[in-house]
Each structure stands twice: as C-alpha cells, then as structure tokens.
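User: Some background: our group keeps a shared notebook of sequences we're curious about, and every so often someone picks one and asks for a predicted structure to add to the entry. Today it's my turn. The entry only has the sequence so far, pasted here. Could you supply the structure so I can complete it?
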Amino acid sequence: MKKAKSEDGIDRISELPQCILQRILYFLSQQDAVRTSVFSKSWRRIWCTRPNLNFSDALFKHQQFTSFACNTLQRYSDQKLCVDDFRLSISLLDLDSISLLRKWIPLLPTIGVKQFHLSILSEQITDLPSVVFEAGSELKLLHLQNCNLVQNTPEIIPFVRLQVIILCHVSIANGVFDKVISSCRLLTTMWFQECKGLKTITVEKKVHRYLNHFAFINKKTSIPYDECSIQIDSSPDLKTIKIIGSKIRFNGRDFINLSSLALHNVVILSSNNSNSVEQSRLLIRIVAPRIKYLYYSGFFIPSIIYAPASGTSVLGLYIRDVDHAPSWFLGLSKLLKSLRRSDIWLNIVQLTKNNVDIQEDDLVRHVLDDRPVVVHLKLHISHLSSLPSVLNCLFCICRPRKIAPSWFSQGICWDRERKMKELGEFFCNIQKMRESGNQEIWRDLEDLTIEGLDTSLSESAFSEFGVRLQWKSDQDCA
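Assistant: Of course. Here's the predicted structure to add to the notebook entry:
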C-alpha cells in the first residue's frame, strides 16, 4: 500500500482533515485500515478512531482475536468515540465465545453503534444469547446471520429507532418474531432469507406505516403450500416487494408508490381470509400505477387486474400438463394482453414428459387479431419435436422480437459441431414454419435473422444466440 502524492511530491491526502481521513478508512477492511498506520505520523492513529469496526475471528488465533477485540472496544468506550457500523463474524464454537458476546454487545450503546451485523461462522445454527437485544436503543440496522433466536426475549424490545432488519438463515419462533417486529415501528426495510420457524408474517399498515421494502426468500422449498403465509396490507409507502416460496395475500389494493413486485413459486390467496389452496385465486388485485418492474415465475398463470402501464415485466412460466395446454395458452394470452403496455420478457419451460401437440385453430379464432409484443422470448423445450407446435401457439398470442433457445446454456455436454447443427435446425424450423405454416399466424412476419453468434464459436456465443424477428406494423403493437 503506497501513499498517493501529487505531481509536486507533496502528500496532500495526509493534509486532509481527520474526519475526511476517517471516512476514507471507513471503506477499508480492518486489516487494511491498520496497515495505513505506516504512511506517516498523521496516519499513525487514524485507524484507531475510524467510525466503523469489522471483527472476524477467522483472521486471528483465538487469543489474539479476543485480546484485539476487547482492547479496541474498551478504547472506543473509554474515549467516548462513536461507531456507526459494527460488524462481527465469530465462530461460537465454545462457551468462551458466547461469553464474549455477553461482554461485548452491552458495550455497543456506549459507543453509539447505529448498524450491527452479527454473523455466526459455525456450520451449525447456534443459539444466540438474549444479550443481542441489548445492542442499544440507538440501533438503526440489525443484521443477523446463521443463528437461532431463543425464546427468552426481554419483555420490552428496545429497538425503538430500528429502521432495517435483515435475518438470513435464522431460526426463530413465530412468537419471538412477532414481538420483535411489532416493537419496531420505524422499520423501512424487512429482509428475511432462508429463515426457519416462521409460519405467518403480517405486515400491518397501522404498525409498519413507514415500510418501504419487504423481502421474503425461501428458495429451499419446491411447494410453498405448507410454508410461511404472508399478509401485506396496502400501503402508500411500500416501494418494493420480493417474495419467493410462500403463500401471499394482499389486503387492500392501493399500492400507489410500489415500483417493483417480484413473485416466484408463490400461492396467491384471495382476500376472503381463507388459507385453503383450493379456494385461492391467482389474482394479483392491486393498484400500482408507478410500478416499473414486475417479475412472476411459477407453475400457474396469474391474472393481473391492474397491470403496469410502463416499465418491464419478466415472466417465467412452465408447461407441465399436455392435456390442459390449450387453456394454458389462452390464459397466457390474457396475461400478456394485460401487460402489453410494458416491455415483456417471457421465459417458457416445458416440463411435460410427452410432446406438446396442439391444434392452433382455437387460438387463431380467439386471440390472433390482438397480439402484444414480447421483447424477448426464451424457450426451454424438453422435446424438440414439440417446438413447431409450441411456437405456433406462441405466435398466435404474441409477436416476439427475439427468440432464444435456452437449452444451449443449460450445461448440455454437446461439442461445437453438434451445437452448430442444433442452432441451424432451430433457425430452419422457424423459416419452414414461416413459409408453409398457417398464414393467418405468419403473414405479418417480414424478416428473421440470426443474431449474437460470432465466428469465434466461443461458449458465450452460444448463450447469446437468438433469432431476431421483424413484424409488420410492429410499432402499432407496442
């Protein structure tokens, strides 16, 4: 690490005010911050007073870490120095480590900690002592990772100024969770990722009136029916919602400032307070005039009552029932029409064991006259013999501007000669369908070209390959 000097050889950085130098060190790791002490006399003690601390016992022998952390915290406390951000990564492999938490965390209020990040490095989830709730009433951000919040919580949760709570890989009983969340009425951000023990989460407008961002992520479940059930009251302050692997019910419709909604592997419940999956309806009944990004991925096609008027809509949908494929495509047609005022990105995955063979006559009769534009259509077809039928149905209900076969980027061990052959056949299939297929479907297609495949035949070239389609009066369908 070298000092930066100006052209005249003067070390102008060292002449900056101490508060600026501390801010520079804020963005360095604890180890790099200590190394700056060799720069010059003016740098020698700057690292000792920077407004953030980042401790990890993975970088020290146990006794060295304990001594370093204890001395540093005690020095900040004795000198009444403030710490905005305190990050602690600790193994918690024995009772001595837990006793350190009981010793250190009560010191955090004395040094004015605003943001507290605690990560347990042990492979097993460890019971966290209740002392974590003594981090102070000034705390604005609490981030806990890989731990178990025990039942013996204090009667009063002191986090009266907490604005952001992040729980990752945390096991927590619903009673403890409800108590914490209901006590933190200034929350603007809730982020819960791979948490165990949660059966219900209720975001109430009267309690969480300042909430801007909500995320619940449970990627480990394949069927969300028996997982957590989330209820979210309509709120003018909510800006982003991201839910993966859960049941979800929206209470009320007015989400007037919502800018991003992402739903993956969810069951959308109706607003009649029924938790029965059979009585659920895949209806997204919200009013969100400012939404700029809508993402939905799942086995069922939802109906969107109030669709975005601009922005981007990303859909990942699965064909898994050949017998109901015609009604599936009709449902997709209604969904695409409701989203037509946004830029639509569509990913279709065929999961059926048998070929999809659909007569497109019904689709032509019902939807051909009003086809919305799809900016990008990505296909993963498990049976390539199904491709003509699937494409015919898709062209009945939309006008793709680019089609990409995703099976070339799915880790299939084909040599380049095989890949080139498959790519050529994919393009020729579309060309033949255009020339000899149902002209009611294909008559408005003016041109198609291969795009994104360079002569280097690099692996990235195959993943970027696609067929560009030019439709007549394309601008009228946007």
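Suggested note for the entry: Residues 109 and 136 are 5 Å apart (CA to CA). DSSP finds eleven helices and 23 strands in the chain.
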